Amino acid sequence: MSVRDEIRSGLDSSAAEQRQADAPGFVGRRHEIAQVRRILAQTRLLTLTGVGGVGKTRLARRVSELLPRKYREGVRLVELATIDEEDLVAPAVAAALGIHDRTPDLVAQLIEHLADKQLLLVLDNCEHLLGACARLVQQLLHGTSRLQILATSRQSLGVYGERVLPVPSLPTPQPGDGTRDIARRDAVRLFTERAATIRPGFHVDTANARAVARLARRLDGIPLAIELAAVRLRTTSVEDLVNELDERLEAPALSTGEVGPGTLARHQTLRATMEWSFGLCSPGERRLWERLSMFAGGVDVETAEAVCPGQGLAREDVLDLMMGLVDKSILCGAEPHGLGARHRMLETIRAYGREQLPPADAEALRERFIDHYRRLVERVRVDRLEPDQIDRLRMLKPELPNVRVALDLCLGRPGDAPAGLEIAAELWSTWLVTGALSEGRYWLKRGLALVPGPSVARAMGLWADGLLAHYQGDAAAAGARECLALARQLGDEKALAFAAQLSGVAALCEGDVEGGLAFLEEARTRHWARGDTGAVAVTLYLAALFAATMSPDRAAGYGEELMTLCERRNATFFRAYALYALGMARWEQGDWRQTEARMREVVAFWRGTEDRWGLTQCLEALAWTAGVRGRYERAARLLGAAHLLWEAAASSPARLRYQARSHQECAERARRELGAQAFTAAFRDGTRLGLARAIAYALEDP
Predict the structure, then answer these.
(1) How far apart are CA 304 and CA 322, in angstroms?
(2) pLDDT number for residue 687
(3) pTM of the predicted protein model
């Protein structure tokens, strides 16, 4: 396979493995690592500061690799570079913690989840979200007792109790150093390691030591600048490389908002190095660098070929130009992600590329970018009843940072706001399955505020927001009434179908069983008439769950219809929801054996997904069946395992009509049969299992 084919396909090959092995490793920083460990033993908040490219992120990640054993609940990394909205900081933290945010007050949910946990939270790249990060950090530290936070930022957060550790450049050779001492300096070690990937066998010797030392000092020991410079060894000698740098760095000082003479000098050095690297690129490579900087979440070759061409850049040239940028270390090599491979830029390089993008090119790129992601979201909707539902979800997840960029671009201009609202509404099932309800409602509310007039886009936005509100425990009635009134005003069949569905949910939440089911049956009829089988499936699922405790036979009918529909369409992902809904109906009919069989099948399927909400409810139901069989200790353990997941979701079975009674009966009977002390011990054992072990326990032969 050629390198060209490798970069296009992203498939494993000897060349790909070699490229991965050649990636520069972690060099030096022993003193800084020791400092971080010492300070974390004394404080709950440490911020690593320094200019872009100095290695704050690498240091934080290295520390997080070394410290997990010190924290009972481990270390969680939150990457903030791909987020541009302050309101999305808390959802990003929730996602990193595996919390499915199901309440409007996500910060309170985070505090409750972290209240007594011994955990290190790493917040990487805070500088562009400084205010939001500072507020969240302050709230989390105030509301918890054992949480520690390690942040990276170009400036401190300014939170009370914060310790700040400036991250220096790598040590460079000193005047008078001999060849051996030069080779031992960390800046030189990094250069040597990177140079050896360009020129195999490269090492520091008496012939090149002085030039290498001069180069390391000229670059102020900044890791990113060193790596960018080392790429030039492909076509030039170390001595010529130093001379080129001398010419570039003799340019007049650049203005910057960062203070301090040392900081200023390092910032100017990195800036000049990137300008030098930019100048060494071909015109086509420079255009592509500028345009790829739009992709916050990285990009695959096919997407780059779809979005980046135009204004002097031909589609057939994109692949070769990407290869050139990989060779120059502007783009990182292909990394496996989702169903394919993606290329990304370091944030400092990406920010420089955005600065260089000409306004005329930016405007055309903006339109292509929005159009691409609007069509992508429509094409890979998870709620469509198709055989590849799981693949759709895996395909969409790595693209979510780029989808956020598209949403922000749309909602930044009134004329494009309807398109942004449509994208946010079409993502409703992704927000739900991934547990990102707060983020979904954030985008929906922004869009609804910008699209106040009567339109199908507003009706669908109201529907999606109302459905997510229901899952968060918010009343959906007000949104349902407006959605239904607007749909009737518009006379649009799609809007009428979804408005009836939301009205059914709202009515059932208020206890109107007959009225709610009547609305849902109307929605089912309208969806069938439009040929929208995915919407039919969602409607049947809602009807089966809500009817289970009130009319089990009707619920079973809805569940059977949903199962038939899923099997007919070979929709395995949604079939798991059908099994769960049918299992709940069978439970209310008194057939616990069928319930247990259904739930075990669903758990076995969902263990390969990240749908913790579904797994929580299945573990809960399996506790009930264990109790009916007289396995009270097992029931107590499963209740404990489910409890931990309910807590993470800031929910409880008491808040769900179809869970509350059975949960209470199971817990009371197990406590009575085991005795309070034995029940509590088994329950606590369940809370300590963790998700993976809880799933394995649930699947054991009962």
Answers:
(1) 9
(2) 87
(3) 0.83
